[in-house]
Specification:
Length: about 240
Amino acid sequence: MEKKNNDINETQVMQTLTDADEYEDAYDTQEYDFEDDLNETSVLERLTDPDLDEKVRKNDKKPQKTSAFKEVLGFLKDLAISMVVILLICNFIVRPVRVYGDSMYPTLLDGSIGFSNVIGFKTKELKRFDIAIIYVEEKNEYLVKRVIGLPGETLSYRYGQLYINGEVVDEPFLDQAYVEQCGQYFMSDVSEITLGDDEYYCLGDNRPASSDSRYYGPFKKEQIRSKGVLVLWPFSDFGLHTW
């Protein structure tokens, strides 16, 4: 019976011994393809190297560790990019805003959520009756109010009527039914005040329930962060307000 194809002959054994170091280096550097079909050489290696299975197991674990590390690194990278994008959007394009209280009722309801226009405020001057988002540092809070007086103007209220530089100015944004309901208590008199070059006089639309420039005094331009509100919630009030 011929044993030509089954037995390990002297030539095969010598070949294995001389190539053992090369294969070991290949395993250590992961240059060897472990998914190749078992051929005569790989069978001979298993016969001559009793530690081969252990080496294969160790090398099989390396790609898994590398893969997990890459996934974590990729997640942290995506998180960092997302945070930078959010900061850029909030500081230069739009910023989220939530209305607390009834100071802007009925224009904006308590709990209304939406976005305010940052880029519009930075590229254009505030106009009279724009809605402004104002930061009050001493209270560490944001106010949502309406711009009534502009820089350099002299402003006053007499019998509920707005006067700018001595001239009567109507306030068409006010809900007249609500104004009449409140009567003489809707708006108290305000003595003449002349605003500085960077000052704005801002009031809430719900005058009886608003802490505004009557309490804080005129607001500096640096305190104003954005203007207008795009209401997203509640859906019944969805829309733009002085964007």
